[in-house]
Design brief:
The complex is a heterodimer of chains A (410) and B (162).
Chain A: H1 5-10, E1 18-19, E2 22-23, E3 25-26, H2 37-50, H3 60-80, E4 88-91, H4 94-109, E5 115-119, H5 128-137, E6 140-144, H6 157-161, E7 164-170, H7 182-191, E8 195-199, H8 211-214, E9 218-222, E10 233-237, H9 239-244, E11 255-258, E12 263-265, H10 279-295, H11 297-319, E13 323-325, E14 337-342, H12 347-356, E15 359-360, E16 362-364, H13 369-375, E17 380-384, H14 391-408
Helix pairs in contact in A: 2-10, 3-10, 10-11, 11-14, 12-14
Chain B: H1 4-7, H2 10-17, E1 31-37, E2 42-51, E3 54-63, H3 66-79, H4 84-105, H5 111-119, H6 140-161
Antiparallel strand pairs in B: 1-2, 2-3
The chains are: A alpha/beta (410), B alpha+beta (162).
């Protein structure tokens, strides 16, 4: 099955708008994706017809809202290949999912001197929570380096994992596009008695997640990068871990009982869902997943691999050595995220000029400053592709970059 | 709608392509001060030789976008050889040139009064070319980085000589 991109584009209202008098060419989906009308309609329908708080009211619309919210949990579980819906904890995003693990599992299980292994390509979401824990209780952080092809250099992995309690890594890099071999990394962690945490924010929107095949212990996904709304994401974890972990945030919903002397927590997963959750956002995420599944994740992946190959060739063809790409060249080792630098032109100036041509790209450190230090650059320009992008978008990018190059030529 | 020519005026591109006063000064007697924009990774390093209340010499290094680097270059040309007091006036004047727009964004109606008084009687010259930056709010921090760094440097050298 191949992707009918023209039909996909018609499902995204924002793609009809113009910016600076030009067709909108949205190449920043690695930051946040656009939303199909099916997602907007699902949320709108809930608010217009069935909105109430969940798990509380005994009236009809409250039951409908609860069914929609718990149905969304089941939908996420099925999409990721979880055994049962209760393995899915709704969070705001992957950032909150990782913080949940750090504050709940980490505080209960990590002592001074314990080792957490990260990689050099992590987003700040999978760095700063561990820095906070390191400052709080003196855990040691170790870093898996990169090889010259911008992939993880696993030659010293056994040494790094020796004595580690947790190996936390991305399934795909938000800067380099690098896709990691999650199963091999999880196996390596387990061989050393460590748990494996996977930041799948940049993977789940683009490739099929199969939790059983990954065999990890914690996996975080975020809705807004996979056609869903902001404010909703999920943590999957092994049931026995979720059972043993103490609550994260305290408040309503996460309790079974509260007295003046204390509380007893609710069952998993609600133990981790304090306060009124983003109900419509969960419903929107389920609609986004329905949309992705209707396209077929295999078709999504095939489309992105083909488009990435076209883009890499077009950039090389037009700009040659004046443009440096930070990421693997091999299409089977990378996703549809391309970071690059022009010789002598700053990333912010590039993105400012291409915006004038209707092209939206990201410029900066991409919330991965440790990685930028390894690369030795302060900032890169990043173009990222998704289901609604096509070769015309790549051509628009290349033409806009050529215009930027002319603009700054001395 | 603001166009690119409002942001990238020819004189800005000239300072970007041929930055003035690049280099270093021996520390001491000069002092060194660094400024960073954590948002975009822009970096400005200033070497200031302040003696007897006068900015005798300035050298700059660092890296960043055209706006931050051009602003650094223009700043160095504007304050070199000037009394510290005049340099401080210029910092205030430049910041108000930039913050007129910020205060409007904040919904303050009386922000312009302060700005006008800070600009009063100060000759901005080439620096006025940077005024177009206020139409691009995310780039204001690029333009002000060098000036905040200079202010920090003058404070430090003032404290050292006091």
């Amino acid at each position: 099955m191949t992707l009918d991109v023209a039909r996909v584009q018609a499902d995204f209202p924002i793609l009809k708008r113009q910016v600076h008098g030009k067709r909108l060419v949205y190449l920043d989906s690695a930051s946040s994706s656009q939303k199909p009308v099916a997602v907007l309609d699902a949320m709108d329908h809930l608010y217009r017809e069935s909105y109430a708080n969940v798990h509380r009211g005994v009236y009809l619309i409250a039951e409908e809202a609860t069914a929609a919210y718990e149905g969304a949990r089941a939908r996420v579980a099925r999409f990721l290949g979880a055994a049962v819906p209760s393995e899915i904890v709704f969070t705001r995003n992957v950032t909150e999912a990782i913080n949940l693990v750090a504050y709940s599992w980490g505080r209960a299980n990590l002592q001074t001197g314990d080792v957490v292994v990260l990689t050099q390509l992590e987003h700040h979401a999978n760095v700063v929570p561990w820095h906070i824990l390191a400052a709080e209780r003196g855990i040691e952080l170790r870093w898996v380096p990169l090889d010259e092809q911008y992939r993880l250099d696993t030659t010293g992995l056994d040494r790094l994992l020796d004595g580690a309690k947790l190996f936390a890594f991305s399934a795909a890099s938000n800067v380099l596009g690098t896709i990691n071999d999650v199963r091999a990394l999880a196996d390596a962690a387990h061989a050393h008695g460590a748990l494996a945490l996977v930041d799948a924010a940049q993977y789940a929107p683009h490739r099929r997640v199969d939790l059983a095949a990954w065999d990890a212990d914690f996996v975080g996904v975020t809705g807004h990068k996979m056609l869903g709304p902001t404010g909703i994401g999920a943590l999957w974890a092994r049931p026995e871990l979720l059972e043993a972990m103490p609550p994260f945030l305290g408040g309503g919903e996460m309790i079974r009982d509260v007295t003046q002397d204390g509380f007893t927590p609710n069952e998993v997963p609600w133990k981790f869902e304090a306060g009124t959750m983003p109900i419509a956002e969960a419903v929107g995420l389920a609609a986004a997943i329905d949309y992705l599944d209707a396209l077929g994740m295999d078709a999504v992946a095939a489309h992105e691999i083909a488009l990435t190959g076209y883009a890499l060739a077009a950039l090389e063809d037009r700009f040659g050595e004046r443009l440096s790409i930070y990421g693997p060249q091999a299409l089977d080792a990378r996703g549809a995220t391309i970071s690059f630098l022009f010789e002598g032109i700053h990333a912010h100036d590039i993105s400012q000029v291409v915006d004038e041509h209707g092209v939206c790209v990201r410029a900066g450190h991409h919330c991965a400053k440790p990685l930028m230090r390894v690369l030795g650059v302060p900032a890169t320009t990043r173009a990222s592709f998704y289901v609604y992008n096509d070769e015309a978008d790549v051509d628009a990018l290349v033409d806009a970059l050529a215009a930027a190059e002319r603009f700054f030529a001395s | 709608m603001a166009g690119l020519e409002d942001l990238y005026r020819e004189i800005i591109l000239d300072h970007y392509r041929a930055p003035r006063n690049r280099g270093e000064l021996p520390v001491p007697p000069a002092s060194k001060v660094e400024g960073f924009n954590p948002l975009c990774g822009d970096e400005v390093v200033l070497y200031l030789d302040v003696d007897d209340g006068v900015v005798r010499d300035v050298r700059t290094s660092g890296q960043g976008c055209s706006i931050s680097q051009a602003s650094t270059s223009m700043m160095s040309a504007a304050v070199k050889g000037q009394p510290v007091e005049d340099a401080r006036h210029l910092i205030r004047a430049f910041k108000s040139l930039m913050s007129i727009h910020e205060s409007k964004l904040d919904g303050e109606v009386d922000g312009d009064g302060d700005a006008a008084s800070a600009l009063d009687g100060v000759e901005l010259g080439d620096l006025e070319a940077l005024q177009g930056v206020v139409k691009f709010p995310v780039r204001i921090k690029c333009a002000t980085l060098a000036w905040n760094t200079l202010e920090e440097g003058l404070d430090e050298s003032g404290a050292a000589s006091a």
